[in-house]
Every structure is written in structure tokens, then in C-alpha cells.
Design goal:
Family: Belongs to the beta-lactamase family.
Number of strands: 12
Organism: Desmophyllum pertusum
Strand order of the largest sheet: 2-1-12-11-10-9-8-7
InterPro entries: Beta-lactam-related (IPR001466), Beta-lactam/transpept-like (IPR012338), Beta-lactamase-like_AB/R (IPR051478)
Order of helices and strands: HHHHHEEEHHHHEEHEHHEEEEEEH
Strand content: 5-15%
Shape: globular
Protein name: Beta-lactamase-related domain-containing protein
Number of helices: 13
Keywords: Membrane, Transmembrane, Transmembrane helix
Length: 470
């Protein structure tokens, strides 16, 4: 193309020099003006969207009305909400494989929380760790394994009773039977697998299902001694239940029930595991995960064990016998870290298909406060952009806490002898670290989003300018 005389005088004779438009030309001036206006509008739009987003996520939700009864459909609505896109929640970046430096630096807060509980009166021994992805990124031990042997603190392989954390193993047992087709559906009536199971239901004709039966009322334990609390069998328990009446309609309200988990574990083990619940869990969960110091038989506990204490001194080592699927197990922080990686989806060992592991952790029921949620054996706290999934346990002389945030691949375990504070310690640690991860990943995602949008805008501008030149 031959340049005009005016163009030549503006850009010189060299053919390598780019010929810029003459801004004095009214047509080209209008074009430049439109581009500037478009860029200013885009920038303003980004600013408004960012301000609105920050304002939205920092608003406190109004307190829910505390009704005496709860609509069971709320759980379904909550689950639908959590599994569908929400216009006010931005998807966060995927947690990196290595713990980010900012989160690494925040681990000192776990030390502060741990240290704050060391002075609790009656607390004898405490051990804990923080798990990220497939590794332990923080650990700490405190106190004594045994008051009678000063100078010997617990370590990550010291055995403690973990009480209701046992329910996690029972839930995995049930889901494995579902995966292998031994049971058809979690919502099957329990009497399908045990015809002798009958409970009086004065409310409706609805059946109690396999989905761990919280609605079975937990009556007094069938105890013959202080160290053997449930030396009974399925036949005896089922006979007792025939005279038991439900306190609320099935599925209406959650009810914490050791009896419910013991019943589901024992009935299904009798039918599908040669009546050996403990042996099945040992072979199919503990051994594959390498949980060498975890078990049910109190006579086989490691010599590296913490002695339990209560207000009266050394607590009795209680054997829960028939109720073992609900409360019997003992373990270590190192072993429970391996269980944690299974649930986070970072373990090299596969016990359940990943979709079933995720279903195992899904919410089933939500309280009217809008944040307290129950799952299959879990207590879940919905924080808005993430959920803290917890399981705690207590038996005489011991307490245990197990908590994690699936979205962040982050969790913690705390085991204690002497006081019932393990849940408070582990929940404080995980909530504190989760806030750091939440802010970090959200900021990272905002930066990625702005970079992508800016890149797209620049590409569009270049194409537009190229079109104008033609």
C-alpha cells in the first residue's frame, strides 16, 4: 500500500515504522474515544463486581428462627444447595499439593491453641497432629502417658481409646457392603435383613432404614459390671426392642444413638461378615491402611498406651462388648492420620470408591440455625464457603477429636487422657487454619479470574484495533 503524503510526513520514510492513526482525524478520534470509554466501563464493572462480592461474603446471615420441630425436607434442600452453583459464591482455587507458605506460617496458631489447653485441670496426656493432603504438617505431644511413670510423655504412636470415632469404621463397613452389592440401598428397611427387628411406631407406617438408625431410641445399657457394659447378643437386644416405642417419627429428628450404630453393625455383620464385625474391620480397613496400633480387643493394646483418668483417679478400662461398633475402638494420632487421608481422597490405598466416600460425608439433616448439620456419623458445621466435618468421642478417662475440611484437604486429630476437651481443641485448630486457607484460596481465585478477564479483554481490544486498521 502506498502511503499518502500526510502519512509519510508523520511517520517518516522507513517502511519498518508502524503507521499510527492520525488522532486529529475526526473519524479515528471517535474510534479512539470509544475504545477508551469501553475500557473505562470494563474497569468500572470489575470494581463494582469486586466490591459487591466482598460485601456479600462478609454479611452475617440472619439468625434462624428456632422452631420446636424441624421440617425434614430442609436436609434435602440444603443438600441441593450445596451441590448446585450459587450466584454469591465464587469457586475457589484447587488446594495446591504443598501447603502454601502463608498457611505454613499460620501453623503457630495450632501451637497456641494446644498450649492453651495444657493447663486444664485434670488433663494428663495429649497428642495431636495436623494433616494436609497426604502428610502430617504439624504434630505436638504433652503431659504423661501414666501418672505412675513420670518422665514418659505420649507420642504419635501412643494408644488412646477413641470412643465414638469407632462409628466412622461402622459407616465405612456399611458403605462397603453397598459397594459390593451385599445390601441394595441405604434406605432399605432394616427388617429386610433382620426380620426379627421390630420397634413400636405410634406415628406412622414408615420403616426404620439401614441409613444409620438415629431414630432408634438409646435406652440404658444392658450392663452386668463396671467393665463389661453390654455383654449381650443380637437376640437379646432385638427382644428388648420389641417393647420399645419411638419418641419421634422415623427421619423426623436426629438422635445420637450408640444403640443404633451397634445394632446396624451387629445385624449386618451377622448376615454378611460371619458374625465378626471386629474381624471384618481389622481385615478391610485397619490392615490396608496400615493402622497397626488400632483395634477393638483391649487385651491386645500396645504397651505404649495412655492410662485414662477421671475425677476418682485411674478410670476403669471399659469393654463395650456387643456395643463395640459404636464406641469400642482404640487408636493413635498416627493411625488416624492414615484414616484422614482416605477421607480426603489423598491416600494411596483405596477401600471405597471415591464417589461413595464423598456420599459418606454428605449432609443428611440440618438444624433450624442453618449451620449445624448431621451426616452419616458426622457433625458438620457449615461456614458458608466450606464445611468443617467432625467426629468426637468420650469414654471414661479418654476423649478424642477428629475434624477436617474436605474442600481444603486439611484436617486434625487430637487424643486426650483425663478430660473431655479433645473436640474443643481439634475444632479450634481446624477452624483457625481453615479461615487462613479460605482467604488464601479465595484471593488466589480472584487473581486468576481477574487475570483471565483482563487477558480476554486485551485480546478483544487487539482484535478490534486490527479490524479498525483494515
Amino acid at each position: 500500500m502506498t502511503a499518502t503524503s500526510s502519512e509519510t510526513s508523520s511517520v517518516g520514510e522507513s517502511p519498518c515504522v508502524v503507521a499510527y492513526p492520525d488522532v486529529t482525524s475526526s473519524k479515528e478520534a471517535r474510534t479512539i474515544g470509544r475504545l477508551k470509554l469501553a475500557l473505562e466501563l470494563v474497569s468500572l464493572g470489575f470494581l463494582v463486581m469486586t466490591v459487591l462480592f466482598v460485601w456479600q461474603i462478609t454479611q452475617k446471615r440472619p439468625a434462624a428462627v428456632q422452631n420446636p420441630t424441624v421440617d425434614p425436607l430442609k436436609a434435602e434442600k440444603y443438600l441441593t444447595f450445596k451441590t448446585s452453583p450459587c450466584p454469591i459464591m465464587m469457586e475457589k482455587a484447587v488446594p495446591p499439593w504443598l501447603l502454601p507458605n502463608e498457611a505454613q506460617r499460620s501453623l503457630f496458631q495450632a501451637d497456641i491453641i494446644f498450649d492453651a489447653f495444657e493447663g486444664v485441670q485434670g488433663l494428663v496426656g495429649m497428642t495431636g497432629n495436623v494433616v494436609y493432603q497426604d502428610r502430617v504438617v504439624w504434630r505436638k505431644n504433652y503431659g504423661l502417658k501414666d501418672k505412675n511413670h513420670p518422665g514418659y510423655p505420649p507420642d504419635q504412636d501412643t494408644v488412646f481409646r477413641v470412643a465414638s470415632i469407632t462409628k466412622i469404621f461402622t459407616a465405612i463397613f456399611v458403605f462397603k457392603l453397598l459397594e459390593t452389592g451385599r445390601i441394595d440401598c441405604l434406605d432399605d428397611p432394616l427388617e429386610k435383613y433382620e426380620p426379627r427387628f421390630q420397634v413400636k411406631n405410634p406415628f406412622n407406617q414408615q420403616k426404620i432404614t439401614i441409613r444409620p438408625p438415629r431414630e432408634v431410641p438409646c435406652s440404658d445399657s444392658y450392663s452386668y459390671s463396671k467393665t463389661h457394659l453390654c455383654p449381650v447378643n443380637n437376640t437379646y437386644v432385638l427382644q428388648q426392642l420389641k417393647n420399645t416405642e419411638l419418641k419421634s417419627p422415623p427421619g423426623r429428628l436426629p438422635h445420637y444413638s450408640n444403640l443404633g450404630y451397634a445394632l446396624i453393625g451387629r445385624i449386618l455383620a451377622e448376615k454378611f461378615a460371619n458374625n465378626d464385625y471386629e474381624g471384618w474391620v481389622q481385615r478391610n480397613i485397619f490392615h490396608p491402611l496400615g493402622m497397626r496400633n488400632t483395634g477393638f480387643d483391649l487385651t491386645r493394646m500396645s504397651s505404649n498406651k495412655a492410662v485414662g483418668y477421671d475425677d476418682d483417679g485411674e478410670a476403669p478400662l471399659v469393654d463395650w462388648d456387643w456395643a463395640a461398633p459404636a464406641i469400642q475402638a482404640y487408636s493413635t494420632t498416627n493411625d488416624l492420620y492414615k484414616l484422614m487421608t482416605l477421607l480426603l481422597g489423598t491416600s494411596s490405598t483405596t477401600i471405597l470408591k471415591r464417589d461413595l466416600v464423598q456420599q459418606l460425608m454428605k449432609p443428611d439433616f440440618m438444624y433450624p440455625d442453618g449451620t449445624t448439620v448431621f451426616g452419616t456419623g458426622w457433625e458438620i458445621k457449615d461456614v458458608g464457603t466450606y464445611s468443617v466435618v467432625t467426629k468426637s468421642g468420650f469414654v471414661p478417662g479418654y476423649s478424642a477429636g477428629f475434624a477436617f475440611v474436605p474442600e481444603f484437604k486439611l484436617g486434625a486429630v487430637v487424643l486426650i487422657s483425663g478430660r473431655e476437651v479433645a473436640w474443643s481443641v481439634v475444632h479450634s485448630i481446624v477452624e483457625t487454619l481453615a479461615k487462613t486457607m479460605d482467604a488464601l484460596l479465595l484471593r488466589q481465585q480472584l487473581q486468576i479470574g481477574l487475570l483471565q478477564t483482563t487477558t480476554s479483554t486485551l485480546e478483544s481490544t487487539v482484535l478490534y484495533l486490527a479490524g479498525c486498521r483494515k
